[in-house]
């Protein structure tokens, strides 16, 4: 008879921590497969924090009574005030940085001596040093790497233990985008017996896959930290849902104080394959037993799929050609800053999938674990990227000062942590490295690529290459190091390069948004080009002003030429900070996904707000709006994106015109229209039959507020989120696209407001608070659950508008 699965334990107090160790003791004697939660428990709750540097804060005797109590993940930069004098500057979005400390206490009963207890950080930005009971157990400079420390030698049993973490982001500038500051990803406490599966010690690949059978190869590293030889049994069970898919068992002789890697091959009949369209996942459950005692167990998720590529045929996933419609993505979560809440990470993937993307590049750093889990679950292919640069600096305190000492450890932690994710099809080792013209760069690249392959020989390696002069061909030796060569903004060179190097497999790792059709044409016309990744999928904080359009009289030039405060973020995304898809997103989606057939938008008239000026990463301001007061009788351009052979445009039921929208027209028609309020209608026409229509309608005076929650049921775990879109409507329920009303937010019940915002990256109001202006008729508010079940009631008001409320239910 199987024992019931014990519930997860929350780290609310020392008392609960004691309970957890009791549960660990129970699990080691269980006759069923204990879940991985027994060896890794969330350690995010009830930390103490104080901004500033306090050298004695590592000591147990330090008085932290006046410190702030908070839960992780935590980014203190987003809590601060935007200021053009902040040292992060335009790269970091003018947010504050500095140094801060975190502390947390816990207790372990003496009967658990002998267990190996550790702490695992998914990410701390940056220059972290971790102390246990006043002893330093390690430093980690790179803010995007995950790391683990063994706490066992320093623990005090039946007494208070104190973890202290110093975080130092004071050396600026150290990055080219918004980083956030603090323990911004999860922390876990771990406990294992002296004989155990090594941390990150499981590697799962699927070297043989057919419709009838898949071979799942699993390499497991077992460690024995006792002074005697041990005879153990490793049992591995594969499941899909509640069904067993395969099983393997092997007896292992483990030498004293030694490690051994065990290879198992397990057959899965009629496998369900992972792909962006069908992201099927399996679980591998590992059980380590000695005689009849369970001494370790864990579970690893994986997918069954094959990836092949060649210049002759392109990229194939599970034997089918796939074209990568990719987007680059920075790690922040907009109004939440860098705080990597699981739901926020998942939502980014949802937004990209809804916009038609099938791939993402994690530019230019290692992503969070939950982001990759979401890519696995929802079906998004991933280029997992380590570094922005190598030895030569882009900023004074960037990774260049760490490279020689840390690159091996940071690559190792990335690959070992991430290698079992089926969504990852490629590793990236760099981006536009400054030293690209130096002879030694080829040696460096080869060392990095070989080191990646040491831990995962199953995936190709790339990096993003760029050249801003006519010396592109001199990079051929550097390109040859990569199995797939990343081009930044240089895909137009690919046909000539193919003649020179016909074996090269190419993907464009960054592209200008406005070049969507040209890049789509190249990707579709040449098998050796496997895809395009636009810069970027979603707007982000920092790199202030990239992608901006502006008006005459405002600060001139590109984002890299000078500061453009109050711009504090990037407007080059297909999706804005509220999650709204810009017209360019719909156009790109229509190119790569022909089932998306019709979209209507309006170009902002030049000189309506001012004379429009564009930048390299911008597109002309185009909106889902037929509200242009004061422009009556004047010409305005209407754009229709269409996969129909032709389209018709109507204004107030009068035919304006008909145009072809085939490939020759780039699937686009532009109509000059004399503006008058009313209903603008686009119709897709095939064989002279009007098949599909879409409209834009002039909104009247703003009357009311509408709230739309992305989820109305969330977990009562103190971390789950609901993203609530605020829209300002007229009496007929039509969005007023010019509304900029001041909004006030009020929350009651089992939740809190964790962030507010809009898509205006010139609005310097705080992202933390209870007020925010709408922009283009929209705003967003994010509520977070507490650890109590109940109801969250959010009310939004604005003078002169009918208020709105929304209810969110929280449960365990």
Automatic annotation (TrEMBL):
Boundaries of every Glycoside hydrolase family 2 catalytic domain copy: 314-467
Organism the protein comes from: Phocaeicola dorei
Keywords: Glycosidase, Hydrolase
GO annotation, biological process: carbohydrate metabolic process
Family to which this protein belongs: Belongs to the glycosyl hydrolase 2 family.
Domain Glycoside hydrolase family: from-to ranges: 705-806
GO function terms (MF aspect): hydrolase activity, hydrolyzing O-glycosyl compounds
Lineage top rank: taxon: Bacteria
Pfam families according to UniProt: DUF4982, Glyco_hydro2_C5, Glyco_hydro_2, Glyco_hydro_2_C, Glyco_hydro_2_N
Domain Glycoside hydrolase family 2 immunoglobulin-like beta-sandwich: 196-305
Name this protein carries in UniProt: Glycoside hydrolase family 2 protein
Glycosyl hydrolases family 2 sugar binding domain: residues covered: 97-189
PANTHER family: BETA-GALACTOSIDASE, BETA-MANNOSIDASE
Domain DUF4982: 633-687
């Amino acid at each position: 008879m199987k024992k019931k699965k014990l519930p997860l334990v929350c780290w609310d107090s020392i008392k609960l921590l004691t309970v957890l160790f009791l549960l660990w003791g129970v699990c080691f004697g269980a006759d069923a497969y204990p879940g991985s939660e027994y060896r890794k428990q969330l350690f995010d709750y009830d930390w103490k924090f104080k901004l500033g540097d306090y050298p004695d804060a590592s000591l147990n005797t330090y008085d932290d009574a006046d410190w702030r109590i908070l839960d992780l993940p935590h980014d203190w930069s987003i809590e601060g005030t935007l200021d053009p004098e902040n040292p992060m500057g335009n790269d970091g979005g003018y947010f504050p940085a500095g140094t801060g400390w975190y502390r947390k206490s816990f207790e372990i009963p003496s009967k658990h001596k002998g267990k190996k207890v550790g702490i695992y950080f998914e990410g701390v930005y940056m220059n972290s040093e971790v102390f246990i009971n006043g002893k330093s157990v390690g430093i980690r400079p790179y803010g995007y790497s995950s790391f683990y420390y063994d706490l066992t030698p320093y623990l005090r049993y039946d007494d208070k233990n104190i973890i202290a973490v110093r975080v130092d982001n004071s050396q600026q500038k150290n990055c080219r985008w918004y980083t956030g500051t603090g323990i911004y990803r999860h922390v876990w406490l771990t406990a294992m017996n002296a004989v155990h599966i090594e941390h990150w010690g499981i590697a799962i690949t699927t070297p043989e896959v057919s419709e009838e059978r898949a071979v799942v190869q699993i390499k497991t590293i077992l460690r024995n930290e006792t002074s005697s030889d041990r005879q153990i049994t490793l049992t591995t069970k594969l499941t899909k849902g509640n069904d067993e898919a395969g099983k393997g068992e092997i007896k292992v002789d483990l030498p004293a104080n030694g490690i051994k890697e065990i290879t198992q091959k397990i057959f899965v009949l009629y496998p369900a394959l992972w792909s962006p369209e069908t992201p099927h996942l399996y679980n591998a459950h590992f059980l380590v037993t000695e005689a009849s005692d369970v001494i370790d167990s864990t579970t690893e998720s994986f997918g069954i799929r094959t990836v092949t590529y060649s210049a002759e045929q392109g990229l194939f996933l599970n034997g089918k050609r796939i074209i990568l419609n990719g987007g680059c993505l920075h790690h922040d979560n907009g109004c939440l800053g860098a705080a990597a809440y699981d739901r926020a990470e998942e939502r980014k993937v949802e937004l990209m999938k809804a916009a038609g993307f099938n791939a993402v590049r994690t530019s230019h750093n290692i992503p969070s674990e939950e982001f990759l889990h979401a890519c696995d679950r929802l079906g998004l292919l991933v280029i997992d990227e380590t570094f922005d640069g190598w030895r030569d600096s882009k900023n004074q305190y960037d990774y260049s000062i760490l490279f020689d000492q840390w690159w091996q450890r940071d690559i190792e932690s990335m690959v070992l942590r991430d290698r079992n994710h089926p969504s990852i099809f490629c590793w990236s080792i760099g981006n536009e490295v400054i030293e690209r013209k130096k002879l030694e760069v080829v040696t460096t690249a080869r060392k990095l690529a070989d080191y990646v392959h040491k831990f995962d020989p199953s995936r190709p390696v790339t990096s993003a290459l760029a050249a801003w002069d006519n010396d592109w061909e001199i990079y051929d030796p550097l390109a040859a190091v990569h199995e797939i060569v990343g081009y930044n903004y240089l895909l137009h060179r690919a046909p000539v390069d193919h003649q020179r190097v016909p074996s090269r497999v190419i993907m464009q790792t960054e592209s200008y948004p406005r070049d969507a059709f040209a890049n789509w044409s190249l990707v579709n016309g040449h098998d050796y080009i496997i895809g395009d990744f636009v810069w970027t999928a979603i707007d982000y904080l920092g790199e202030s002003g990239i992608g901006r359009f502006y008006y005459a009289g405002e600060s001139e030039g590109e984002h890299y030429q000078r500061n453009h405060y109050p711009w504090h973020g990037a407007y080059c995304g297909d999706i804005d900070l509220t999650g709204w898809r810009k017209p360019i997103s719909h156009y790109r989606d229509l190119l790569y996904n022909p089932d998306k057939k019709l979209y209507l938008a309006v170009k902002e008239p030049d000189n309506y707000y001012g004379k429009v000026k564009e930048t390299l990463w911008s597109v002309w301001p185009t909106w889902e709006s037929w509200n242009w007061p004061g422009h009556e009788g004047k010409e305005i351009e209407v754009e229709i994106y269409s996969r129909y052979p032709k389209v018709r445009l109507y204004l107030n039921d009068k035919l304006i015109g008909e145009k072809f929208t085939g490939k020759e027209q780039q699937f686009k028609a532009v109509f000059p229209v004399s503006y008058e309020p009313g209903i603008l209608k686009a119709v897709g026409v095939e064989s002279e039959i009007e098949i599909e229509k879409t409209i834009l309608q002039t909104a009247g005076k703003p009357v009311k507020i509408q709230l739309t929650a992305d989820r109305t049921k969330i977990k009562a775990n103190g971390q789950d989120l609901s993203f609530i879109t605020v829209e300002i409507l007229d009496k007929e329920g039509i969005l007023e696209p010019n509304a900029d009303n001041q909004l006030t937010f009020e929350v009651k019940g089992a939740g809190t407001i964790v962030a507010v915002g809009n898509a205006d990256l010139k609005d310097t109001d705080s992202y933390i608070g209870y007020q925010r202006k709408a922009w283009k008729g929209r705003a967003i508010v994010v509520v977070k659950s507490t650890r109590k079940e109940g109801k969250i009631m959010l009310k939004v008001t604005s003078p002169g508008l009918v208020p709105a409320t929304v209810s969110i239910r929280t449960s365990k």
